[in-house]
Amino acid sequence: MLALDSGLLLEDTRAPVSLTDLASLSPARLAVASLRLDVHPLVRQRAHVDFLERRTRYRSSSRRDSQEEPLFDLPLTFLVPGSPTLLSIAHLVLVQFNPHCQSPQAAQAAAELFLQRAAETQDEREGSQAPSRSQTLSIECCRLVRQGMGKEAVGGLALEVTDEALVVTRGGQFLLQVLAEDITAFKYLLASPGARAVADFHCTLEVAALHVGLDKDNTVSDSTLELVIGEFGSGDARFEQLETTVEKWTTSQGFAIQVIQTQPAAENQIPTKRPRSPLLTPPASRSPSEAAQRQDDSAALVPSAAKRRRSDGGPSESKSSRTAQSTAMQSAREGPWRYVGETAAELEWHPGAFVRQLALLQAIAPNANLFLPPVTADDLALLSRQVVRRQLPKLPHRVPDCAPHVNHNAVWRLALENAYRLGPRIDLMTSRLVLLTDEYVDLREYAKIGSKMVDARNAIGVAYHQVLDKVLPIRLAQQNETTRAQVEKLISLVHNMRTDPLFRRTHLLDERGGLIRTVWPTFSEADLGPSVFARFERALADIVEYEASAGAVV
């Protein structure tokens, strides 16, 4: 299915299509042609019919095995969820043929989302200026660490960044590699080396991986690869290629990226330029006071009860940590608040959904190191509300690149495109216009805040991986025949929460259609076990209290 999805995204959604072309088109191109509004209606209708006729012949053919067509092998009858974002790429294409889809709006939304994602893929391929498929960075040191023990290599080392892996070589000879699909977390440790290097920076990469390949037959499991890149210049093309590649991997593989920046404490330090990387240098706040305010308010999506009460055990003087500026903007519908209404955001993009999943996982695995990126109470209030499509500005299409030599923040771009996901597709250059200029300041601010939900989706994927693939298998192996049944229940529950959008929706929403406010009756002690149930119940009570104090819509 992944190969089919990838192939569909690579289809050229801008190539001209005529009636005479249809007979030579592949099934995928036929299906895509029937979606495209820029194709003549007669051609679209004929492509639609041809696809169904060819599929019928294929499925009744005795030579089906020798002429495999994955798109024809998929059933046309499947459940169409309320949001097309819950569908795979292949199913987005097939909604138009689904006899259970009686809503033209649902079919159109699925088509638009597929065309948007396919066009993004094509934009990225066309916009890539890399002359080769890989870039090489010199590295000072390579350490492979597992369970506190490690091996180190220095001298003559290089890091090659390919489309599929990070490859470390020594003197041109293969040393080890980490495939993108095996990465579970990626961390940049970035620091300026001080006054002696005005435009240089020092970076170490920490890559947590399920497997690190030493050669064709030997791998090291559950380890961390530390790569000391050393000094590099601001705007180094090779380092930017590394960042761009890792950004693509985190989107496809779902691991989290962390950036840790440190500043030297030397006196009379010469101010240094920062790298242009969107990952390593988020834009500064508008003023020092605002920066301090946002830093003070920043916390986990839901802080623990202990953090929200005075040390004497009494309640805090003010339950809400909303800033006056944000509250005023909400009342006046100014700033990013102009784009949201008073209905709750959809489940897959609601901060409350992420924090409830994390609370459940933390209750199941209380000793696991699980996290969500920090947000402020202001951001929680904003992001809990659904974007109102008609209130978004109409953006220009196919504009020239506003800043050819400046990188945009890819995560902000994902958040921007999510806001417009049910409207016209936003191409790459339009996104850059919003993110890199002052033409749409409020929209850029909304994308910046919304990017925290992209980070949250990545982080919750890592949390599911840790609990389902690491914690619970070990716990299961320690059980006897009479106690393993409860752990098997938890494994099944976490697996379904991770992989099944409808199961997740059923267990995160209550009968009123809002996010659950109590553990029972959605979950029972029999489902979770008494201790897990009690921990989740306490955490959920804190979540509900904090959401109310922040003015979130749930």
Automatic annotation (TrEMBL):
Domain of life: Eukaryota
UniProt biased composition (Polar residues): 317-330
Segments of this protein annotated with the region Disordered: 263-335
The protein, known as: Uncharacterized protein
